[in-house]
Amino acid sequence: MESYIKLSTLNDFIFCPKSIYYHNLYDSYDKSMYQEEVQIAWTIAHESIDQKTYSTRKSVLQWLSVYSEEWGIAGKIDLFYISEWKLVERKNKIDKIYQGYKYQLWWQMICLQEMWYKVEELAFYSMQDNKTYRINKPKFEEIEKFKEIISRYKKFDLLQPNWSQNNQKCLKCIYKELCDCYIWEVYPQLSLFE
Ligand code: SF4
Hints:
Elements: E1 5-6, H1 7-15, H2 17-26, H3 37-50, E2 60-62, E3 65-68, E4 73-76, E5 79-81, E6 86-91, H4 99-114, E7 121-126, E8 131-135, H5 140-155, H6 167-172, H7 180-186
Helix pairs in contact: 1-2, 1-4
The chain binds iron/sulfur cluster.
């Protein structure tokens, strides 16, 4: 059987390739051991979707499994309003629409379209402040970028000697307390072995 790349893994990869390792490693552990308050709030808020209790309307598809054979990707969507052909991803609080967020919705859209769903509208919903952010569909260059990201993902080797992470990302990372990059690169003065 063909193996698919999980959408959540691609999202992790865009943020930081190393976070894929921590995501997989700690997925089975008690999340309170490594999630920060904001992430826990998001998880609780997201539970209504995970348990498909957010809406009883049949016109709203929740937590639907999606895939694209063409791109070799598969994952889940949060909400799809069939009557409006609207795909929505909810987050606890959105301060800024990062490029990685857009990819998240674009990949979901590609999967839905390959499964013969029409997608007219894409949006993020920020739950804490009740704000909706509409997202444009990807342009040709952005679709081309998908290929580059998937190809980089397939070739990436975490043990390559010259890889390093952007410190600003490390500061925002939920795995930072566990990660050697954060400790040694962001706070090298903490080195215990010098
Ligand atoms: S702390 Fe930095 S290097 Fe480590 S997983 Fe997070 S973002 Fe990546």
